[in-house]
Amino acid sequence: xxxxxxxxxxxxxxxxxxxxxxxxxxxxxxxxxxxxxxxxxxxxxxxxxxxxxxxxxxxxxxxxxxxxxxxxxxxxxxxxxxxxxxxxxxxxxxxxxxxxx
Length: 101
What we know:
mainly alpha; single chain; 4 helices
């Protein structure tokens, strides 16, 4: 018996990785803002800060877009599988190994 599509896609792992990327990018943006504020007090060239800020911003945008797309696709696949899933027997809510013997 083949597994359903919703069971084959590692949605939790995908979301976890995207959230980690989002958190790292957010931290990079915050770091660049803190460094920019400290450079305002004593002026120095800030080319590195602009690069850090842009990398962090693009990382946040890409990660949030990926999270939203993954969640929407997950909901669509779950709805489609819910309508097309036909089972012959009752559905088990919990796997109970004692009763299977």
